[in-house]
Design brief:
The protein is α+β, with helices and mostly antiparallel strands. It is built from 7 helices and 16 strands. The strands form 2 sheets. Strands 8, 9, 10, 11, 12, 13, 14, 15 and 16 form a 9-stranded mixed beta sheet that branches. Strands 1, 2, 3, 4, 5, 6 and 7 form a 7-stranded antiparallel beta sheet that branches.
Amino acid sequence: MADTQGFDDRDGFIWFDGKLVPWREANVHILTHAMHYASSVFEGQRAYRGTIFKLREHSERLRRSAELLGFNIPWSAEQIDAACNEVLQANGLTDAYLRPVAWRGSESMGVSPKGTKPHLAIAAWNWGKYYPHEKAAAGLRLDIAPWRRPAPYTAPVHSKAAGLYMIATLSKQHADGRGYDDALMFDWRGQVAEATGANAFFVRDGVLHTPTPDCFLNGITRRTVIDLALKRGIEVQERTIWPEELESFEQFFLTGSAAEVTFVQSAGPWSFEIGALSRQLATDYDDLVNGRQA
């Protein structure tokens, strides 16, 4: 995940409101509404061997996220797809991470977004594994986050909105300061939710268990892994999971476009093994995104 080069000073091109611009010139004004009031949505997606995985799903989710925040992106899913492929090609990348981001501009200032114009930018860069290989191979150590996922009646929880990641950032920072790799988050009820940027799966007696995504994103990678499990005849239970049940699970892994499938060795006081079922699904996912299986 580490990248020692600043993201503001790089060679390359960023797609910005309909055209490619030099990387260093892809700037916004300091009074952009999104910076002050979090009126921004984004996607994180990966390209493998020149193909962006589940591109259409990402583009459609970006548009839905903006709509949940009350603004419309003036580019169709087809146009966003084309722009993502254009920026990938312009930067000469085949295996890469892409970040489409849409936001309200600086046409007016105040809590009300009235009069602001929607903008869209797409960047792409080389980015290896989200977690260092040694940590991922051994399994992550997760802290228990001090912050909780909010209730659906308090925030647009099904939007991939920048503002919703504030508590994730605080939780990740807290975990880093305590020597952990990441944090497991509970929701406002105290139920198990997800990690700071990835969905959670648990294994017990050959059955896959995952929290119901009623207050956090039903991730694209999450849905892909569920499909892969079902194809193998693995039972999948999407349900309420309370912390007291964690000691009964044998395996634990995370899923996300950045994290892909990442094993977990512990979460707070609970320990897990890296078992055959988790390894199989990680292999299946890697084969799928790299075009080695249908």
